[in-house]
Recover the amino acids of this structure.
C-alpha cells in the first residue's frame, strides 16, 4: 500500500536502548477507555510530541508517564527501571503542568529552588543552581518577585526552570503553549527548542496543535480516541499518514473514497490505478500541494476533470477549489506566480503522481 | 481627581462600618473610664475599673484565654482536617460534607449544648453505653460539668466557623500546585507543611480568630455544661444585667478584647513563621 | 418573681406558657378590634417582668374597662429604679418590684401609697403577705403583693434517704458531688448568712459576716457538681440524676422535675430560707390612676390569681383563689400551713443600697459573690 516512505531519521533497530518504554499501557475510567492498550518507545534526547484532538487521552498518557495516574494495564519503564508503581515524587521525571502549578506564596527564586530544598541540598548548592537556572531562563531580574506578578510567558519560564533544575531524565509538558497568545507562543517555541538543546534532555509534550508539534518535535505520536495511530518523525507522518485520521489531522489533505480489488483501486471520482493491499474500501490521500493543473495534453498518474469553484490568493500560494464528480471537492495549492490564474467556472484537468499519493484502508 | 472620586465611592460602606463597629467600640472605650454609683453614672474619668479588672479578674481572664486558645487550636485543627478531606480526599462528597457542616449551624446553640448534656451526663448516652459494655462499673461523673465538656461543646458549636474559612482558602489551591509539589519530590508531610498550610494561612488565622472570639465571649456554655466553671463572660454579662455596672463590664470587655487581639496576633505570627519558605 | 427568681429559666418556662396564652388572647382579641378602636382608650404604662402583665391581660378584662396596656419588660429590678428616675415619673403607671426594693422606692419617692379602699380584693389576700413589713412603710401599704415563693432544699427521695435537716448537712461527705447549686446571688447569700453567721436578719450583715457567708458558700460549692444557670437547668440536673439535692431551691421545681418524669420533694432546713414577694406598685404621679387601681385589684382577683397559679405555676396570695385551685397545683406550695410559713422562710428583703453604718451594701454583696463564682 505504501509506494514510498520517507526515510526515518532513526528506527527502533539501529538506535540505542529506549529511555522510556511503555508496554501495554491502558487506562479505563469505569467503562470508558481513556487510553487503549499501547506501546511507545522514547529515546534519549528525543523531543516528542503527543498530538491529538481534545479528549483523545493525551494528558492521561502524560500523567501515566509522570506517575499521577496509575495505568489499568501495562508497565512504564524509565532507563531500564520499572517505575509503574512509583509515585511522581520518586520518578526521574518532572512535569510542566498545563496551569503551571506555580506556588503563589513563594517568590520566583523560591519556586525554582523548591525541589532542591526538598532534596536537602546545601544552601550554597541551592543558591548556585538556582542562580544558574534563573540565568538560563532569563529570569534573574524577576528572582525576588512573587510569581503572581509575572506575565504568562514568564510564569511558563519559571515552571520550566523549576522542573529542569532537577535534571529530570524525562521532562513532561502538558500543552505548554496553549495559554499563551500567538506572538508569545512563537517566542516560547524558540525558547523550548533552545532549552532542549542546552539542557540536552528528553522532552515529551502534549499538544492538540499540529503546527506546534511539527515545528518543535523530532518525533510525533498521533493519538486518536485513546490510541496512538502513528508514531514517527514529522516528515514521515506528513508525507505518509498511516490512517485517514492522521492524514486529516496533520496538514490539509484531499480524501478520495474508493474500492480495492485484487490490487486494483477504483476511486469513486473516476480514476483507477494499481495498488497492492487487501480488498475493501480505501481512501486515497493527496496533499493540495501535490495536485497539478494539467495543461492541455499533459498527462499524470492520476487524472480527474473538474470545474473551478473558488480561487483565493493567500500571499505565498493560491488556494483553488475544484468541483469534481459526485459533488466532491479537491483543494489545489498553486504557485502564487502562476499565469494565467484559473477563473471560477473554468473546466480544468487535475493530476498527480502516484508517488505523492497515499492509500489508506477505509 | 480620580482618587478623590474613588474615596467618595467607599463613603457609604465606611459609614456603615463606623456605625456598626467603630461607634460601639468607641462607646465602650469611653464608658470604661466612667463609674456607676447607686444607679447613677458618674462621667468623671477614672482608671478604677481597669484597676479592678487587673486586681480581681486576671485569674478568670487567664483561664478563659487558656480555654479559648485550646478550643481554638483544636477546632482549627479539626476544621483543617475536615476541609482537607472535603477538598482533597473525598472531593465527590465535598458538597455533602459542607452541607452537613452548614446545616449544623441551623440547629442553634442551645440545641448543641443540650445534646452534649444528654451525651455526657451521669445517665447520658456515653455513660450508659460504657456501663452496658462493662467498660466501667459506675458512671464517669467528670464527663459533664467539666472544662472538657465546655471545650467539646464549644468545638462542636464553632466547627462550621473554622471549616468555612479554611475550606474557602483551600479551594484557592489549584490541584496543579499540589501535583507540582509531588512532582518536585514532596511527600505527604512536605506537601501539607510547605504548600497547603502556607496557602491556607488566612483561612487558618480566620478560623482561629472566630473560634477564639466565640469562646472568649461565651457565657452560656460554661453555665450549662461547665458545672461550677466560671469564664470571664459569666462575670461580664451580669455587669450589664443584675449588677448594673456597665463601665466595669466595658472595661472587662476591652481588656478581654485586647487579650484576644494579642493571642490572635501571636497565632498569626506562628502560622506565618511556619509558612516561611 | 423576686430578684432571686428573675433570671431563671423557671421563668423561661413560665414565659413559654405566657407566650402561648398571650398569642391565644391576641387571636381572640383581634375579632373585636375595630369596635374598641372607635373609642378613646386609657393607655396604661406598665414596667415589669414579662408575664406579670398576663393575669390582667389574658382575658377581655382590659377591653371591658377600655384600657390598653403598654408594657415594657425589665431584666432586673434595678431597671425599675433606673426607669423611674430617668424620666419615668409622670408617665409610668405600674411597676412590679420585688418587695425588698419597695423601701428604696419609697425613700427615693418613686412610688405612691396604695389607697386600700380602692383595692377591695386586698380583703382576700392572706395576712402574711398583706402585712409584710417590706411593703408597709410608715404604716402605709405601698405594693399589692400578688405572687411569692421560697427557697427550700429540693431533693430526690429515691437517692436521699437521710434527708438533711440543716443546710450544713450538705457539707457531709455522703453528699459530695451530689449537690446542685443555683446561681442566685441574693438568695444564696441570704441563706448563707443565716447559716454561717446565725443572724436572723441576713440582709444586715457586716463585711466580716459577708466573708463568712461567702466562705460557707464556697464550702457548699466544693460539694457541688454544678452551679446551675437557671431553675430549669437545676431541675434538669436533678431529673437527669446528675445531682440529688440542692442549695437554694424553689417550690416550683417539684413541677419542673415532675414534667421531666422525676419525683422530687422539698424541705425547709432549720436555719430557715429566704422568701420573696412580688408586687404591683403605682408609680408616683401615675397619669392613669384609676386604671392603675383597676389593674391592682385585678391582679389579686380570683380570676387573675387562678390564671397565675394554673398557667404560670406561680404561688398566689388570694385565699379564695387558693381554695379554687385543682389539688395538684395547690399541693405544690405549702398553702395549708401558710400562717407558719414564717417559721420556714423569711421575707428578708434587700441589703442596703447605699452605705449604712458598717453594714454591707448590695454592691458589696455582688462583688463578694464573684469570689464564690471564681472559687
Ligand atoms: N479522572 C477521570 N475520570 C473519568 N474520566 C476521565 C478522567 N480523566 C480523564 N478522563 C476522560 O478521559 C478522556 C481523555 O482525557 P485527557 O487525557 O484529559 O484528554 P486530552 O488531554 O487528550 O484532552 C476524556 O474523555 C476525559 O473526560
Ligand atoms: Mg489535556
Amino acid at each position: 500500500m505504501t509506494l514510498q516512505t520517507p526515510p526515518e531519521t532513526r528506527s527502533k533497530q539501529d538506535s540505542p536502548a529506549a529511555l522510556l518504554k511503555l508496554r501495554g499501557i491502558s487506562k479505563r475510567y469505569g467503562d470508558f477507555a481513556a487510553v487503549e492498550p499501547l506501546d511507545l518507545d522514547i529515546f534519549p534526547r528525543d523531543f516528542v510530541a503527543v498530538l491529538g484532538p481534545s479528549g483523545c487521552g493525551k494528558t492521561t498518557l502524560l500523567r501515566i508517564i509522570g506517575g499521577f495516574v496509575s495505568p489499568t494495564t501495562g508497565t512504564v519503564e524509565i532507563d531500564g527501571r520499572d517505575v509503574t508503581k512509583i509515585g511522581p515524587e520518586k520518578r526521574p521525571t518532572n512535569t510542566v503542568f498545563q496551569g503551571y502549578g506555580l506556588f503563589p506564596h513563594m517568590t520566583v527564586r523560591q519556586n525554582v529552588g523548591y525541589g532542591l530544598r526538598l532534596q536537602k541540598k546545601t544552601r550554597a548548592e541551592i543558591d548556585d543552581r538556582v542562580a544558574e537556572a534563573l540565568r538560563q531562563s532569563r529570569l534573574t531580574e524577576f528572582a525576588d518577585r512573587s510569581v503572581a506578578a509575572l506575565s504568562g510567558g514568564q510564569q511558563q519560564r519559571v515552571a520550566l526552570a523549576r522542573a529542569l533544575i532537577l535534571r529530570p531524565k524525562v521532562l513532561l509538558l502538558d500543552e505548554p503553549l496553549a495559554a499563551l497568545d500567538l506572538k508569545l507562543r512563537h517566542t516560547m517555541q524558540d525558547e523550548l527548542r533552545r532549552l532542549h538543546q542546552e539542557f540536552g534532555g528528553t522532552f515529551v509534550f502534549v499538544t492538540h496543535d499540529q503546527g506546534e508539534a511539527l515545528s518543535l518535535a523530532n518525533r510525533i505520536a498521533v493519538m486518536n480516541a485513546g490510541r496512538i495511530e502513528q508514531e514517527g518523525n514529522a516528515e514521515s507522518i506528513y508525507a505518509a499518514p498511516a490512517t485517514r485520521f492522521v492524514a486529516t489531522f496533520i496538514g490539509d489533505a484531499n480524501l478520495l473514497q474508493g474500492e480495492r480489488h485484487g490490487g486494483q483501486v477504483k476511486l469513486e471520482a473516476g480514476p483507477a490505478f494499481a495498488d497492492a493491499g487487501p480488498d475493501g474500501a480505501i481512501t486515497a490521500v493527496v496533499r493540495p500541494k501535490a495536485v497539478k493543473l494539467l495543461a492541455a495534453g499533459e498527462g499524470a498518474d492520476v487524472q480527474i476533470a473538474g470545474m473551478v469553484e473558488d480561487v483565493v490568493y493567500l500571499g505565498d500560494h493560491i488556494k483553488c477549489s475544484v468541483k469534481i464528480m459526485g459533488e466532491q471537492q479537491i483543494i489545489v495549492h498553486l504557485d502564487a506566480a502562476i499565469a494565467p490564474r484559473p477563473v471560477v467556472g473554468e473546466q480544468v484537468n487535475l493530476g498527480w503522481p502516484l508517488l505523492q499519493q497515499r492509500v489508506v484502508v477505509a | 481627581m480620580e482618587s478623590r472620586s474613588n474615596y467618595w465611592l467607599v463613603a457609604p460602606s465606611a459609614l456603615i462600618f463606623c456605625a456598626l463597629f467603630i461607634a460601639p467600640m468607641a462607646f465602650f472605650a469611653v464608658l470604661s473610664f466612667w463609674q456607676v454609683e447607686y444607679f447613677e453614672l458618674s462621667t468623671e474619668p477614672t482608671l478604677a475599673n481597669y484597676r479592678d479588672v487587673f486586681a480581681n479578674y486576671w485569674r478568670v481572664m487567664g483561664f478563659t484565654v487558656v480555654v479559648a486558645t485550646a478550643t481554638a487550636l483544636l477546632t482549627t485543627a479539626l476544621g483543617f482536617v475536615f476541609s482537607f478531606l472535603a477538598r482533597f480526599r473525598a472531593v465527590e462528597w465535598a458538597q455533602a460534607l459542607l452541607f452537613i457542616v452548614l446545616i449544623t449551624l441551623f440547629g442553634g446553640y442551645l440545641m448543641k449544648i443540650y445534646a452534649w448534656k444528654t451525651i455526657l451526663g451521669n445517665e447520658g448516652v456515653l455513660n450508659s453505653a460504657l456501663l452496658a459494655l462493662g467498660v466501667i462499673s459506675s458512671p464517669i461523673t467528670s464527663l459533664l460539668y467539666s472544662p472538657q465538656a465546655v471545650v467539646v461543646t464549644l468545638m462542636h458549636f464553632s466547627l462550621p466557623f473554622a471549616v468555612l474559612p479554611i475550606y474557602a482558602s483551600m479551594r484557592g489551591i489549584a490541584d496543579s500546585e499540589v501535583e507540582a509539589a509531588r512532582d518536585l519530590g514532596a511527600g505527604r508531610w512536605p506537601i501539607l507543611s510547605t504548600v497547603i498550610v502556607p496557602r491556607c494561612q488566612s483561612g487558618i488565622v480566620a478560623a482561629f480568630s472566630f473560634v477564639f472570639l466565640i469562646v472568649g465571649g461565651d457565657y452560656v456554655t460554661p453555665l450549662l455544661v461547665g458545672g461550677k466553671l466560671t469564664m470571664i463572660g459569666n462575670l461580664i454579662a451580669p455587669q450589664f444585667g443584675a449588677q448594673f455596672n456597665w463601665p466595669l463590664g466595658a472595661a472587662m470587655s476591652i481588656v478581654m478584647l485586647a487579650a484576644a487581639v494579642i493571642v490572635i496576633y501571636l497565632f498569626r505570627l506562628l502560622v506565618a513563621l511556619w509558612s516561611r519558605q | 418573681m423576686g430578684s432571686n427568681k428573675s433570671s431563671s429559666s423557671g421563668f423561661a418556662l413560665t414565659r413559654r406558657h405566657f407566650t402561648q396564652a398571650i398569642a391565644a388572647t391576641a387571636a381572640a382579641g383581634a375579632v373585636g378590634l375595630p369596635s374598641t378602636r372607635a373609642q378613646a382608650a386609657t393607655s396604661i404604662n406598665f414596667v415589669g417582668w414579662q408575664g406579670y402583665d398576663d393575669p390582667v391581660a389574658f382575658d377581655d378584662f382590659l377591653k371591658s374597662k377600655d384600657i390598653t396596656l403598654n408594657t415594657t419588660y425589665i431584666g432586673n429590678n434595678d431597671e425599675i429604679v433606673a426607669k423611674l428616675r430617668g424620666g419615668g415619673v409622670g408617665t409610668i403607671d405600674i411597676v412590679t418590684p420585688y418587695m425588698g426594693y419597695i423601701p428604696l422606692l419609697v425613700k427615693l419617692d418613686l412610688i405612691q401609697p396604695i389607697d386600700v379602699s380602692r383595692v377591695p380584693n386586698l380583703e382576700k389576700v392572706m395576712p402574711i403577705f398583706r402585712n409584710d413589713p417590706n411593703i408597709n412603710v410608715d404604716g402605709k401599704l405601698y405594693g399589692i403583693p400578688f405572687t411569692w415563693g421560697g427557697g427550700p432544699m429540693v431533693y430526690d427521695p429515691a437517692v436521699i434517704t437521710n434527708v438533711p435537716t440543716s443546710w450544713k448537712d450538705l457539707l457531709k461527705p455522703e453528699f459530695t458531688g451530689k449537690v446542685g447549686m443555683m446561681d442566685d446571688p441574693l438568695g444564696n447569700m441570704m441563706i448563707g448568712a443565716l447559716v454561717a453567721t446565725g443572724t436572723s436578719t441576713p440582709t444586715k450583715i457586716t463585711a466580716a459576716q459577708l466573708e463568712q457567708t461567702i466562705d460557707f458558700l464556697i464550702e457548699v460549692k466544693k460539694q457541688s457538681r454544678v452551679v446551675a444557670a437557671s431553675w430549669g437547668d437545676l431541675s434538669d440536673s436533678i431529673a437527669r440524676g446528675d445531682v440529688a439535692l440542692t442549695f437554694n431551691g424553689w417550690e416550683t421545681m417539684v413541677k419542673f422535675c415532675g414534667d421531666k418524669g422525676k419525683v422530687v420533694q422539698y424541705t425547709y432546713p432549720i436555719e430557715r430560707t429566704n422568701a420573696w414577694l412580688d408586687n404591683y406598685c403605682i408609680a408616683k404621679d401615675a397619669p392613669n390612676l384609676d386604671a392603675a387601681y383597676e389593674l391592682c385589684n385585678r391582679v389579686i382577683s380570683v380570676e387573675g390569681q387562678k390564671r397565675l397559679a394554673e398557667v404560670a405555676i406561680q404561688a398566689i396570695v388570694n385565699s379564695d383563689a387558693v381554695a379554687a385551685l385543682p389539688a395538684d397545683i395547690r399541693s405544690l406550695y405549702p398553702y395549708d400551713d401558710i400562717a407558719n410559713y414564717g417559721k420556714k422562710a423569711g421575707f428578708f428583703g434587700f441589703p442596703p443600697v447605699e452605705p449604712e453604718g458598717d453594714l454591707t451594701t448590695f454592691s458589696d454583696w455582688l462583688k463578694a459573690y464573684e469570689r464564690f463564682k471564681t472559687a
In short: The first helix of chain B runs from residue 2 to 31. The two ends of chain B are 41 Å apart (CA to CA). The mean pLDDT of chain B is 88. The beta strands of chain B are 35-37, 40-42.
